[in-house]
Amino acid sequence: MAERILVSACLYGEAVRYDGQACTQQHPIWQEWQQQNRLISCCPEVAGGLPIPRFPAEWIKGDGHNALIGKPVRLLDSQGTDVFSEFYKGAQYALQVAQRHNIKIAVLKSKSPSCGNDLIYDGTFTGMLVDGIGLTTAVLQQAGIQVFNEHQLAEANTLLNQLDQSSTHRGDLELGLAKR
Ligand code: SF4
After folding, report:
1. How many A from CA of 51 to the centre of ligand 1?
2. Residue 59 forms beta bridges with which residues?
3. Residue 166: pLDDT band with limits 50, 70, 90
4. CA angle at residue 108 from 99 to 69, to 5 degrees?
5. Closest Cα partner for 141 from 101, 108, 100, 164?
6. In 3-state terms, what secondary structure has residue 32?
7. What's the pLDDT at 64?
């Protein structure tokens, strides 16, 4: 069976972002994946119980400690409400979805405090970015899932083709053994 890819629901076209918008992808690689029925969408923040729209949230440097991220940070929305538990619940849900479909690749929305995989907003709500990853990305990576963002589709596709080839090879070997 073809490898599936876990994708951020907002990239898939669902209006689930904090501002009630989507970030629908039109790239040819994405469209090919869609035609091949590979995409499984999930919005961790909504799955964790947060509404649409909602206040934006960012990782804030502070006295808390997030063992998952390994840094003294807290996750607050722009009104100062701690939303870590909702984000954590959503990240665990995304992991369950990925495991149900035996997923090894995720393509998640860049810069998000849940889905980002290289840069996140710096906690000042001023649009400044710092190195860092979102909570769902951290949970998926810890489970061995490769996380890309929407600007890394070619890299994700290369890995996908490798996985497809190795599963075809495995299937051929099993067929050969069965025929003996
Ligand atoms: Fe998109 Fe992820 Fe934010 Fe949901 S949590 S709106 S999927 S970036």
Report:
1. 12
2. 75
3. confident
4. 80
5. 108
6. helix
7. 61
DSSP classification of residue 4: P
Q: Is the pLDDT of residue 21 over 90?
A: yes
The Cα–Cα gap between 102 and 132 comes to: 26
Residue 69 one-letter amino acid: I
Q: What are 85-124's pLDDT values in tens digits?
A: 999 999 999 999 999 999 999 999 999 999 999 999 999 9
Q: With the C-alpha atoms ordered 138, 91, 96, 169, is the resulting torsion angle positive or negative?
A: negative
Each domain of the chain, given as residue ranges in start order, spans: 5-54+86-119+129-174
Ligand 1 proximity of 112 Cβ (cutoff 6 Å):
yes
Q: What is the rounded average pLDDT of the residues 145-171? A: 92
Number of the ligand 1 atom closest to the C-alpha atom of 46: 4
CA–CA dist 147, 152 (Å, integer): 10
Q: Closest ligand 1 atom to the C-alpha of 8?
A: 7
